[in-house]
Amino acid sequence: MNLPFTLDADTVWYAIGDGSLDKSAHKLDDYPRIIILVDENTHHHCLPVLHKLVPGLENCDVILVSSGEKNKNIAQSSYIWNELTRLKAGRDHLLLNLGGGVITDSGGFAAATFKRGMRFLNIPTTLLGMVDAAIGGKTGVDFHDFKNQVGLFVDPVGVIIEPLFLKTLDQLQWQSGFSEVLKYALIMDKDLWGKVQGKHFSEIEDWGTIITKASRDKIDIVRFDAAERGVRKNLNFGHTVGHALESYFLRTHNETTHGMAIAAGMICEAWISAKIFEFDAAHLVEIVTMIDKNFERFTFDESKIPLIIELMHQDKKMRGNKLLFSLLRRLGKATHDVEVSPHLIEDSLRYYFKGEV
Amino acid sequence: MNLPFTLDADTVWYAIGDGSLDKSAHKLDDYPRIIILVDENTHHHCLPVLHKLVPGLENCDVILVSSGEKNKNIAQSSYIWNELTRLKAGRDHLLLNLGGGVITDSGGFAAATFKRGMRFLNIPTTLLGMVDAAIGGKTGVDFHDFKNQVGLFVDPVGVIIEPLFLKTLDQLQWQSGFSEVLKYALIMDKDLWGKVQGKHFSEIEDWGTIITKASRDKIDIVRFDAAERGVRKNLNFGHTVGHALESYFLRTHNETTHGMAIAAGMICEAWISAKIFEFDAAHLVEIVTMIDKNFERFTFDESKIPLIIELMHQDKKMRGNKLLFSLLRRLGKATHDVEVSPHLIEDSLRYYFKGEV
Fold it and tell me: Which of A113, A313, A316 sits opposite B115 (nearest CB)?
């Protein structure tokens, strides 16, 4: 067990590690009223744990929404606004988002836009939420087929990363979050790479350390560049292709996980990186092998490649007509705003679909 | 004619007065692409004027929405997001809101939440827009019966207040905006009160001066307290009762104007002010007489008073269970966060409905 630590970073406080909920529960006393947002999974598995650890929350009103990326949309936001209205929530109240990325993204957006700004707190309950979605103030919902097309940069008042909640995760959720752990390792943390490299995620035992390292990587970046003007863009490695694939699967109603899409995106973008920055071929093999060890590749018709490229043009990271990527200079070091030609992107998708390492 | 002036205030620039559009048009060159938001009225009356004054805007894409408070809702936001998506708008593009308060509120909200933040510029075309809605970063839409229940504090990049556009206004719109002019006079600007007092709005000739003074009053306040922690709350004079009346009429599908509701609210709240701060009875008469000269009173059943009080409890200015008002200490001076008992509010509504001065 690693000791929990807290960090009062500018406008957000973080409590991270085993026991962090217990250690930070007093912070909840700052709010005259707390309303808890859950989905059916966290309602069943996590809310009882929260109530047990923080008995004062037992009498709080609860808003229940449906889980899953396919429900992260404006209809869900409207439902939350409606419930907040019905519960007579005020600007000085706190929405406590208890769940994975869908809950923290959607709850953050709904709270921040309710009465022009109600505060919210994130308690992520999935690996993906703990190392990524709950940190850094990106909130939003999908709109038609476009991921996070409607949303805001707005920080929670605090984030409590309590690994205890992970006990309720299924394998698919572990896998999904693991894609982001690999991303931090690849873009900025060779030490983290060393801890995971060669392993299947199910073989990892010391998740406390992995989560602490990965979440600190993200916190360090977003503190430095909250508005994504520079270095924060490095976090988009794997996400330009990955989001387009995720949008494609949203559109075709084949639900995938965020992690599977990002894993595929990282293979394509590592391949592009190797082409552009000419890094060691052995490193590309090492990266792709590690991703393949943890994620099965998607298979689909090559004729869909133009559609996927088209979806990339709706990416929020577009500038003018250019597709700008965040790529690896080498293993453990990323750079951003690299223009990549559609031709090279197509080739990377062909490389991926052929299943080559 | 008064000379236009420009003000680079922190993060927002303002160009105010006759000729201000001409003088500030070069600022539009900063954006790689501009998309213009209009309603059917400004599409017909104002867009040709804008095109004539700034020919470079003739080729910009235009998004057209329906006018009127009853259309300022999430469905309208969704329509705007949809159009921005279809037009492949990017975060670095600019949404130019050309219209009254509905356009600047709704367009500002849609832009600020599109791809987590597209920039927008306000060119108000109504008196209400020029002296109030377009300034200060309050954006949002109504939700069910609640005014601006969903929205954000977010500043436009700039505001161009060009009185030329007022030529297209009808009497109801002049009247609606005039309520806010009276508010500035009452809460902070005795000089402005001196310029309008005793007049019907149709008798005023020098609108350039009135608009410049009133918009400067608002800018001075929001620069000092953008987040509405203190003095900005003074701008809510007339609005606690006024918004509840407006919500009531939205609910009963009797459309009213914002100005008529605020005028009624100012009568009630001036009466409450006089009760609490014991200010000169002659001043209360002067205020109420002036409002009555410009606005007919609503008539409706006294039995609706409890419902109106209930609607006040959804007010964004509520804290805990208390109704906090912004009131007049005297004519030309306001204060905020004054707790008023429901009993006194009811009495003020009875005073209003009896038609007493």
Answer: A316
